[in-house]
Amino acid sequence: MPAPTPPTSFILPDLVSHCKFPLIYHPEGDAIAQQSVTWLDSNCPDLNPKQRRALRGLQAGELTAYCYNYTTPERLRVVSDFMNYLFHLDNISDGMMTRETDVLSDVVMNALWFSDKYMPTTGPGKEQPEDELNPGKLARDFWARCITNAGPGCQARFKETLELFFEAVNIQAHARDDGVIPDLESYIDVRRDTSGEMQAVLGFDRVYALDIDLPDFVVEHPIIEALNQSTNDLVTWSNDIFSYNVEQSRGDTHNMIVILMKYHGHDLQSAVDYVGDLCAQTIDAFIEHRNKLPSWGDEIDEMVERYVTGLQDWIVGSLHWSFMTHRYFGLRGAEVKKNRVVKLLPRAA
């Protein structure tokens, strides 16, 4: 029997229609987005022309304008800089080996702990160069502007979640070093931690943009944790769908769709449909948990309501932005959003 013909395209699940949350854009969003991308572009002298075009086409500032549509222009600018920086970290860490990710982590966390000046560490195995590396300089820049009006609890949670992100990046680097494709359960565990970057965004940027500092007993409540997890899972797993085509073209296997095809007998379309169903379930779970929010009194309840509405903005904003950015579908995002057909890119040599 001849081998089945490899697929040349697949159909996206209709997550945009499944998500009924209102889509709102910040009135200063375009201007702030332009300022923010210029900030990163002008402070990264080593980027080549192709990388600079990709940076402009990413439209990370537009993502923040959807997800933080209620904040002041000043705070939106800090959040947009952080978002551009997160994508920059993701890009430069993507092909790194384990030792390199250790260095990157040390440089960034140094900037957060010693925000007023560069203080290189000298411990065995943790020696840092005399001149600060560029990722550290960028982190120090946005962090110095941020901590002037971010609460202590907000700052502490940000550092903690970013450290979790780097730990997960290290696990990914080990897998790349060893050429390992993890099983589904391991992948979900690690993916949730790599989205420590997303948890940092949701936990830190949300309260910073809202100018609130939620008490620990609220942040750690099971319903709030479940709402955070649903948001994180939706953004993470939908990203596996939207990014699959580009990733398969370059041989990247760190994607739930790849794992479903390798270990669970799925073909491409059924794997995409499976992940799409998971995403729809997370949206439904978010709504269910939101309806179960307890009360902590009028003052805290008002902050919680704004916080949870912000999580909702992240869900709907990220879905629509995925077709706006050039990162996944190039210049064909509007067309793909309409017909949901993705033509597979050829594998790079």
TrEMBL record:
Keyword GTP-binding set for record: no
Presence of keyword Metal-binding: yes
Originating species: Hypsizygus marmoreus (White beech mushroom)
Family assignment from sequence similarity: Belongs to the terpene synthase family.
GO biological-process terms attached to the record: isoprenoid biosynthetic process
GO molecular function: metal ion binding; terpene synthase activity
Cofactor(s) required, per the database record: Mg(2+)
Record protein name field: Terpene synthase
Origin organism lineage: Eukaryota, Fungi, Dikarya, Basidiomycota, Agaricomycotina
Entry superkingdom: Eukaryota
UniProt keyword terms in alphabetical order: Lyase, Magnesium, Metal-binding
Gene3D superfamilies for this protein: Farnesyl Diphosphate Synthase (1.10.600.10)
Pfam family, one: Terpene_syn_C_2
EC number of this enzyme: 4.2.3.-
